[in-house]
Design goal:
CATH superfamily: Aldolase class I
Strand order of the largest sheet: 1-2-3-4-5-6-7-8
Structural class: alpha/beta
Radius of gyration: 17 Å
Distance between the termini: 12 Å
CATH topology: TIM Barrel
Bound molecules: 2-phosphoglycolic acid
CATH architecture: Alpha-Beta Barrel
Helix content: 40-55%
Number of domains: 1
Strand content: 5-15%
């Protein structure tokens, strides 16, 4: 059985002191669930090192929200995978805000995934269709395109450090989450695609998270779906009680599934 993973994407929120204070407050609540759920916080890069230092003795892991594809050089404003390796375990790549606001291309995302995996980082690759694509019935086509481009050249072995986050663009920050059934269906399709491209075993082991308006109210019903292995949480990860409640629901639904 796949161990669920819940990641909190803080996006561009909190000052450094606020972020540190928040982690200290959240930590005791979250750590109780660490045996059942892998926990990851994705703070803004300016406080990543500090948050990682606070969590050095904690089972809670940290991750970056973005990464460059080169190790070093004249890339103003970027943070390289070589700089993260060794102390920052995860990195989020391909978030829809990076794709749509900052214009990241499939090719850039592929280079980021490859570079991060080469440095031993764990990659959470986010994919998702827009409302227009969804309404045109193009979800499968878009998923296949985003995945095949982002994972071009990634071996089944390297994909041992990969998770996928299915985040329909229309569900992010809108309060309108995908229904559990729809999310499960798309994620099942993603897993089938992974089996064909990587290996059946690797596809079975790969965690596929749901993201987009996850709340304490809908977390349980999402996590009960067989293909959903956790959550990528934005807004609700900024509220300690809400994020803890989502993690608790994830742990509960896993315990229930195990009987
Ligand atoms: P949301 O964001 O939970 O605020 O919808 C999810 C995400 O962007 O990862």
């Amino acid at each position: 059985m796949r161990k669920p993973l819940v990641a909190g994407n803080w996006k561009m929120h909190f000052t450094v002191p606020e972020g540190i204070q928040f982690v200290n407050r959240l930590r005791p609540d979250l750590e109780r669930y660490a045996r059942a759920v892998d926990l990851v916080l994705l703070p803004p890069s300016i406080m990543l090192w500090e948050v990682a230092s606070v969590l050095r003795t904690s089972p809670i892991r940290v991750g970056a929200q973005n990464v460059a594809w080169e190790d070093r050089g004249a890339f103003t404003g970027e943070i390289s995978p070589a700089m993260l390796a060794g102390w920052c375990e995860y990195v989020l790549v391909g978030h829809s805000e990076r794709r749509h606001i900052f214009g990241e291309s499939d090719e850039q995302i592929q280079r980021k995934v490859t570079a991060a995996l080469r440095h031993g980082l764990r990659v959470i690759l986010a994919v998702g269709e827009t409302l227009e694509e969804n309404e045109a019935g193009r979800t499968e086509e878009v998923m296949t395109r985003q995945l095949s481009r982002a994972l071009d050249g990634v071996t089944a072995d390297a994909a041992g450090r990969l998770s996928i986050a299915y985040e329909p663009v229309w569900a992010i920050g809108t309060g309108r989450a995908a229904t559990p059934g729809l999310a499960n269906e798309v994620m099942g399709m993603i897993r089938t695609w992974l089996a064909g491209v990587l290996s059946a075993g690797r596809a079975q082991e790969t965690r596929i998270l749901y993201g987009g308006s996850v709340t304490p109210e809908n977390a349980r019903s999402l996590m009960e779906e067989p293909e959903i292995d956790g959550a990528l949480v934005g807004g609700a990860s900024l509220k300690a009680d809400q994020f803890s409640a989502i993690v608790a629901s994830t742990a509960d639904s896993m315990a229930a599934a195990q009987g």
